[in-house]
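User: Hey, quick favor. My workstation is busy. Could you predict this chain's structure for me?
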Amino acid sequence: MPEESPPKRARRRAVLALGSNLGPRDRWLDQGTATLAAEGGQVLQATPRWNTRPVGGPPQPDYLNQLLLLEGGLDARGWLRVAQLAESRAGRKRSVPKGPRRLDVDVILVEAEEVDAPDLVVPHWALLERAYLLAGTACLVPLWVVGRERLAVGQLAERLLPPSWAHPTFPTAAAGRPRPA
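Assistant: No problem, here it is.
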């Protein structure tokens, strides 16, 4: 009797955020991106890289952040495993909470999936609190619907981003049918 192949998982897209505040920051983001692509799926789009101040934790250098839109056969937990693998390969140590790190990778959104567990929250809890996360996500997937209000990410960005975050007019539900996150 021939062996059965494993069932194919539906390909779905995910938005992941990468950050580094230990040099060489660009190299760690490049390495993280390569690991995510090799182990998780194809990189469809990437945002520009932004310098941001650390939130909480001990005094430390600014972060270099970037968001990626990837596509692969993973669910939210699978993307978390790949994110942790990328951090591990970059030599991340979790000895100081909210401390400096070579690479930090967070799962922000996963297409058609929401998770609320102690080790994983999708949509990411900071999506609407950190300007670079909201601006970047709106650039990548402006029509995905999130939040209690069930609004498109682009609409939320237009409403919530401070004027200091120059941003384009994001496509909204009026411009096309929103897609659930």
